Amino acid sequence: MSRARRDQLATVGWLVTSLVLMVAVWQVVATVVIADEQMFPGPVTVLAAARTMLANGYIAANVWPSLTRVLVGFILGAVGGVVLGIATGRVLLLRRLLGPVLILLRPVPAIALVPVAIVWFGIGEESKYAVIAYAVGLTVWLNTHAGAEAVPETYLRAARSLGVSRPRQFLSVVVPAASPFIVTGLRLGASVAFISLIAAELTGASSGIGFQLQESRQYLATDAMFVSLITLGVLGAAVDLAISTAGHRLLRWEKS
Predict the structure, then answer these.
(1) Are residues 131 and 212 in the same domain?
(2) Which residue of 63, 97, 113, 222 has the smallest Cβ count within 10 Å?
(3) Which of 214, 215, 210, 187 lies closest to 197 in space, CA to CA?
(4) How many domains does the chain have?
(5) Are residues 31 and 53 in the same domain?
(6) Mind telling me which GO cellular component terms the entry cites (predicted)?
(7) What region, left, alpha or beta, does residue 122 occupy, with left being phi > 0 and alpha being psi -120 to 50 degrees?
(8) Tell me: the pLDDT tens digits for 136-153?
């Protein structure tokens, strides 16, 4: 058996062990520590609720709108964050002009932007896209900026000595050198996208995981709330895994 195969099996084994341990602790807390199914339902109760919600199509009806919002907002924010990050990381004038503004915006959480986005774009999809793109863009910008700023000057001097034009230096030197930072920023941005998604959907949404969570709260359906939280975690983990896998394949050159 190859080493790569053994590493894969070990990863799967630790994943299964971690999940089993989590469910066991969850069951003990639900039955022994809290012992109140209404307040803190156990895994069996939540599983039964999940089966019902899957069977009647309730989960599917809310997952797809949320995934669409995350995808659109993430793409808008990621593209803007990467472009701005490379620009402020390599162009001194833009760093001095835009850097302070972006640093001032970073502490402002996405949930604080929800009322403003509703005023500007209404309660439709555009306001949700804007909130998610804002949160993702700042996260991706920060990591991309750090990566672009840290590109060794020797790389650029070597490119200039070979007659590479300045625009091509960005594509052939700066972007590849900063790509590990960019991939990390995209992974963090994906997590932030789901966080800001819930902030956007808790206000003025008629579908989505956030709406599902809010509706469950109104009916005191704690088991359904847990299903929503688990669904959110699974989707976020799947997106993170996809970005991480793609990033590892794109960055094979770094290990060679």
Answers:
(1) yes
(2) 97
(3) 210
(4) 2
(5) no
(6) plasma membrane
(7) left
(8) 999 999 999 998 888 887
Say if residue 30 is in the same domain as residue 1.
yes
Which residue segment(s) compose the domain that 210 sits in?
A: 40-255
The residues, any chain, with a CB within 8 Å of residue 21's CB and separated by 6 or more, are: none
Which ranges of 29-124 would DSSP assign to H, the alpha helix?
Answer: 43-55, 58-90, 92-105, 110-121
- Whether residues 198 and 171 share a domain: the answer is yes
Tell me how far apart the alpha carbons of residues 234 and 221 are, in angstroms, rounded to a whole number: 20
CA angle 28, 30, 32 (to 5 degrees): 55
| pLDDT tens digits, 99-124 | 888 888 888 888 888 888 888 888 88
The amino acid occupying position 165 is S
Q: Are residues 114 and 29 in the same domain?
A: no
Residues 160 and 183 in one domain: yes
Same domain, 135 and 180: yes
- Position 49 confidence tier, pLDDT thresholds 50, 70, 90: very high
Model pLDDT, residue 175: 82
Summarised one tens digit per residue, pLDDT across range 66-82 is: 999 999 999 999 999 99
